[in-house]
Design brief:
This protein is an alpha+beta fold and 179 residues long. The chain has a single domain, classed as CheA-289, Domain 4 (OB fold (Dihydrolipoamide Acetyltransferase, E2P), Beta Barrel). Helices cover 16% and strands 40% of the residues. A six-stranded mixed beta sheet has the order 8-1-2-11-10-9, with no helix packed on it. A five-stranded mixed beta sheet has the order 3-6-7-5-4. A hairpin with a 2-residue loop joins strand 1 and strand 2. 24% of the residues are buried.
Length: 179
Amino acid sequence: MTHRQTPYELLVHIDALCRGQSAGLPAQQEVAQTWSGIGFRIADQHFVAPMNEVAEVLHEPRYTLLPGVKSWVRGVANVRGRLLPVMDLCGFFGTELTSAKKLRRLLVVEHRDVFAGLTVDAVFGMQHFAVDTYSAVLPDINAAFAPFVHGVFVRDQQPWVIFSPHALARDDKFLDVVA
């Protein structure tokens, strides 16, 4: 009479066979911690916004001009049935949009009562940085950015300044759009 293995004994046997076959495999290397954000450009400065602070990225939509607003308020656009104020982020910071309209993008921010599209020169998509490349020491940047930035990541000698759209959405100067 032969001994019939129980399901548990069979699983233990299969486990032992698998472990015997895996002896030559390399050990798992340590996984590096990363930080991810949306990369974009204003003039010649590269920025990265935290993923949770950008609702979406859009091509610059057609918009309707608004009277009596500051020059950096481009107008209002209809995005899927919702009115989206379009703000020229470059103009807000006192710089000029440098890229052609087809390269420009809108970073859509939805924070508290603010729903707005921020026009930037270009968007580079999702960027990933090793957390050990973070520095609190900022490179030489326009002083107008200071209240909205909090550190920098460096990759391939390129600094990516961390920009907070939520901090911008809480700023009184940004919220004061009436000319």
